[in-house]
Amino acid sequence: MTTAVLLLIGLTGCASSGNAADDAIDRTAAAIAREVSVALANLSPGDYGEGGVSYLTSAVITRRGEVLGSDRIDTIELDALQAWVDTRFTATASGGYLGKAQQSATRCLRFEVRWSYGDYVTHHPIDCPA
């Protein structure tokens, strides 16, 4: 029975980091990427740079993140980088994996905007500035 439960957990993609605050940041970043991708779908590809910076900056600030820097690149080339926004998120959370006590995390992420046939907005970790 235990083996079957562990196998099921592994197959369902349970990707918890064990730190509830880290997981909260991951969920926030994914929500921002989805929200901004939907907003960009209403723009022409030539407006993704300016629109991407504007939408991302607003979404990050709304979720109490900090914008560290941003830029837009004027291009309409498929899959080319059109905008980026560097961010810092700090979160605290109670509980988490195995009922741990209060946890906190600070992570920096870069959101990137591309006109593509996949996701318009992606994000990945970056080093936080000192």
Describe the 3D structure.
Helix content is 35%, strand content 29%. It is an alpha+beta fold. Helix 2 (20-40) runs antiparallel to helix 3 (48-62). The radius of gyration is 17 Å and the shape is elongated. Mean pLDDT is 85; it is low at 1-14.
Labels describing this entry:
about 35% helix; 4-stranded antiparallel beta sheet; alpha+beta; disordered N terminus; about 130 residues
Q: Topology of this protein?
A:
Blueprint: H1 2-11, H2 20-40, H3 48-62, E1 66-72, E2 81-93, E3 103-114, E4 121-126
Antiparallel strand pairs: 1-2, 2-3, 3-4
Helix pairs in contact: 2-3
The main sheet orders its strands as 1-2-3-4
Computed over alpha carbons, the radius of gyration is: 17 Å
Shape: elongated
Proportion of helical residues: 25-40%
Major beta sheet, specifics?
4 strands, antiparallel
Q: Ends: how far apart?
A: 49 Å
Give the low-pLDDT segments. Answer: 1-14
Mean pLDDT value = 85
Secondary-structure content class? alpha+beta
Tell me briefly what this model is:
Helices cover 35% and strands 29% of the residues.
